TrEMBL record:
One of its GO terms (cellular component) is fungal-type vacuole membrane. This is Vacuolar protein 8. SMART domains: ARM. It is found in: Vacuole membrane. It comes from Suillus discolor.
Length: 617
């Protein structure tokens, strides 16, 4: 600041030597003398009030352009050294100088205003006092220094939420977009920074798109400047939050994905991170899910996923989660080596969101293929889930139990999962405070209990092992769901009991037949078709809740389905038995029962569809 201040002082002294002093008004001469004295004692002078501010104001409103230049320079120097909340008495002279026709005055005044606009209170007052209009005029100046300072000031003003809409409606976006293409890197940085600050609300993003910003931002992804890359990548990431904007990007910006994939290999960590987040937002749409894989985005995402830097791990995990939604991407992701890193992230206790993204991705990868389900189990996912699920946050529990429910759809894997003792952790979670965790855990148990083609060698001893423990075991869980006010839970319970009875396992059949806990509730459900008071039947809790598959089977008549299943159970419990099965169905799987084999297959199919079709954002 010393060099700048001496420049100010020399300004005044040069005017004296050129005999300007006689041309000054009396109050201007006094102001010059006062300001020179204040500048000599600048370390102890407060220029934002009293006589120092009066002197600066006098020079600012002078008709003498040299005095205006000196005042503007002084304001620029002072505000560079110290920024504080100021009042109208400080801003009025600076805004007056901003409207000057003189380039030097414009340059210094906009620098001073930009410095003051770092302060939150000042941001609001500058806009309130009409600062945007002269700033927009200066953005149109042919002088690069004036452009740079004016855009820099708008960038600072746009960091305050209360200013964003005003800036968007002020006419500033078109000149900002034009200046983003400036050949001067400082102007380009400030302009792209300002555009980024305007992308944080739906309305402002739309204004930005209307101003033609998208092609400019996309073209600047290839800038050699890291800051410009960062601002443009982040701005496009925010713009891609809106479905309509993603459609425009898909129609008009064919190089977008390739550029973003390349930026995931940037030397700058923050650019890598924002590139992954931009791809994550784009991957909300099927087209981009496929395009990212086609552009070899998986290679970079796998590297980021294995980083030690949390923002990179989080952004890449979120991106892979969305990419994994598309069934065609399941095998490429597995073949690229993602399974082990994803399983490792299940125990990433520093960040719940990372855990959620990792387990959701595994669930998506398991959705469509037996081969992929087998690969996921073989890689150790279920073992990790079993070790972690009772200790992780509730959101992660919900995702983990949903993943187990998907894996448990595989007839080939059910035996392995049961041998691993997965029921021991699922049963306690059926009593979770979260209805979603409860439903997913119960659905997983139901899927483990069912099988399309039963054989004499099927081993159901795992269910006998957990009949009474832990936490009251299957017995207590089934009772809790049978007596729930939620018809969805009632439905899961009766459906699961039917599967267990169909197993033909003598111990299981005996446990159910002799249960004084279950049978009264089953009889009540068999007799009553009165809907439960707060039934959620037909109303899935979310895309993750597997319980919806049971509730929605009977074309909206979930309670009728419950009654049919309950009566089916009573056929087992009350009827004559033949090898553990009622005589009416001893020779054929559920044939001739009140719930036909076709209906049972429909139940199973709906379960599969529910588990396979979830998408995440």
């Amino acid at each position: 600041m010393g060099a700048v201040s001496s420049c100010c002082e020399s300004c005044f002294r040069s005017r004296r030597s050129q005999q300007y002093e006689p041309l000054l008004l009396e109050n201007e001469r006094e102001a010059v003398a006062d300001l020179l004295q204040y500048l000599e004692n600048r370390t102890t002078t407060n220029f934002f009030q009293g006589s120092p501010l009066t002197a600066l104001t006098t020079l600012s409103f002078s008709d003498n352009v040299d005095l205006q230049r000196s005042a503007a320079l002084a304001f620029a120097e002072i505000t560079e050294k110290e920024v504080r909340p100021v009042g109208r008495d400080t801003l009025d002279p600076i805004l007056f100088l901003l409207s000057s026709q003189d380039t030097e005055v414009q340059r210094a005044a906009s620098a001073a205003l930009g410095n003051l606009a770092v302060n939150t209170d000042n941001k609001l007052l500058i806009v309130k006092l009409g600062g945007l209009e002269p700033l927009i005029r200066q953005m149109l100046s042919p002088n690069v220094e004036v452009q740079c300072n004016a855009v820099g000031c708008v960038t600072n003003l746009a960091t305050h939420d209360d200013n964003k809409t005003k800036i968007a409606k002020s006419g500033a976006l078109v000149p900002l977009t034009r200046l983003a293409r400036s050949k001067d890197m400082r102007v380009q940085r400030n302009a792209t920074g300002a555009l980024l600050n305007m992308t944080h609300s739906d309305e402002n993003r739309q204004q930005l798109v209307n101003a033609g910003a998208i092609p400019v931002l996309v073209s600047l992804l290839n800038s050699m400047d890291t800051d410009v890359q960062y601002y443009c990548t982040t701005a496009l990431s925010n713009i891609a939050v809106d479905g309509a904007n993603r459609k425009k990007l898909a129609q008009n910006e064919s190089k977008l994905v390739t550029s973003l994939v390349a930026l995931m290999d940037s030397p700058s960590l923050k650019v890598q991170c924002q590139a992954a987040l931009a791809l994550r937002n784009l991957a909300s749409d099927e087209k981009y899910q496929l395009e990212i894989v086609k552009a070899d985005g998986l290679t970079s995402l796998l590297r980021l996923l294995q980083s030690t830097y949390l923002p990179l791990i989080l952004s890449s995990a979120a991106c892979v989660r969305n990419v994994s939604i598309h069934p065609q991407n399941e095998s490429p992701i597995i073949e690229s080596g993602f399974l082990q890193p994803l399983i490792n992230l299940l125990s990433f206790k520093d960040n719940e969101e990372v855990q959620c993204h990792a387990i959701s991705t595994l669930r998506n990868l398991a959705a469509s293929s037996e081969k992929n389900k087998t690969a996921i189990v073989k890689a150790g996912a279920v073992q990790s889930i079993k070790e972690l699920v009772l200790e992780v946050p509730m959101n992660v529990q919900s995702e983990m139990t949903a993943c187990v429910a998907v894996l448990a759809l595989s007839d080939e894997l059910k035996g392995q999962l049961l041998e691993m003792g997965i029921c021991e952790v699922l049963i306690p979670l059926t009593n979770s405070p979260s209805s979603e965790v409860q439903g997913n855990s119960a659905a997983a148990l139901g899927n483990l209990s069912s099988k399309d083609g039963r054989t004499a060698s099927d081993d159901y001893s795992a269910f006998n092992d957990v009949w009474e423990k832990p936490d009251g075991g299957m017995h207590r869980y089934l009772y809790n769901f049978l007596t729930s006010v939620d018809a969805t839970f009632q439905h899961i319970a009766v459906w699961t009991i039917v599967q267990l009875l169909e197993s033909g396992d003598p111990q299981l059949v005996s446990n159910i037949r002799l249960s004084g806990l279950l049978n009264p509730s089953i009889r009540q459900l068999a007799l009553s078709r009165t809907p439960s008071a707060t039934s959620s039947a037909g109303t899935p809790r979310s895309h993750r809740s597997q319980s919806q598959s049971y509730a929605d089977t009977d074309a909206g008549d979930g309670q009728g389905e419950i009654q049919l299943l309950a009566r089916r159970i009573l056929e087992f419990v009350d009827g004559d038995v033949d090898g553990g099965l009622p005589r009416s169905v001893a020779g054929s799987h559920m044939a001739g029962s009140s719930v036909s084999s076709a209906r049972d297959e429909e139940l199973r199919r709906s379960v599969r569809e529910a588990f396979s079709s979830g998408s995440h954002h």
